[in-house]
Amino acid sequence: FGRKSYDSNINEIMGFYSVNKAQAGLVGTFFFIVYAVGQVFHGIMCKYYNPKHVVSVALIIAAVCNVLMAIMPVEYFGLLKYVWLVNGFAMASLWSVIIRLFNRTFSKKRLKQSLVFMAFPVSIGTFLIYGASALFSFLEKFKYTFYLASIMLVFVGLVWFFWVDKLIYKSQIERIEVD
Predict the structure, then answer these.
(1) What is the separation of C-alpha 34 from the centre of its chain, rounded to a whole number of angstroms?
(2) How many C-beta atoms lie closer than 10 Å to residue 147's C-beta?
């Protein structure tokens, strides 16, 4: 949700802010450059992170960025690329932290299952955000996509924060029994 809310509304954003494709595309470019660099950075640094806090905080930061995208006045379009840059760095932290956590806690059997399962949230989230975006665009309320993304990100961040310790404990017990 947090990565695709901009891309799924690019035409509406261009119309609302009266910008061309190059200007609108620059926002996405800022995101993906920082996301790519952030993947490498977080991949190296994630061994020092507390997964519970990093994932929750990253999702909350992404939620705040989505709200900022929704409320940004027309005259401040130039700031969108910096908001989305912050979002890109926050979102980049998720994959490496979660994969490292799974590798440390799951049994070999569960690790394979979990990695297959990890593909589903991305696919489902992309499908849902593009569907919601189409609906909101039809209703001429494209900014609602950002609000929906924010709500979902906060929800997932809170679920993660309160659930991950149980996941780790249960998985470590299972790993001891299986491995």
Answers:
(1) 13
(2) 19
Number of residues written out for the chain: 179
Rounded CA-CA distance 74/79 in Å is 10
- Listed in sequence order, the residues at least 6 apart from 31 whose beta carbon sits closer than 8 Å to its beta carbon are 3, 6, 84, 85, 87, 88
**CA-based nearest residue to 65, from 92, 98, 102:** 92
| pTM recorded for the entire structure | 0.89
- The radius of gyration computed from the CA coordinates of the chain, to the nearest angstrom, equals 18
Contact predicate 129/5, CB 8 Å: yes
Matching residue, tokens 């900014």? 143
**Spatial contact of 103 and 51, defined as CB atoms under 8 Å apart:** no
Is 90 exceeded by the pLDDT of residue 61? yes
Cα–chain-centroid distance for residue 128? Answer: 14
Q: What is the model's pLDDT at position 178?
A: 61
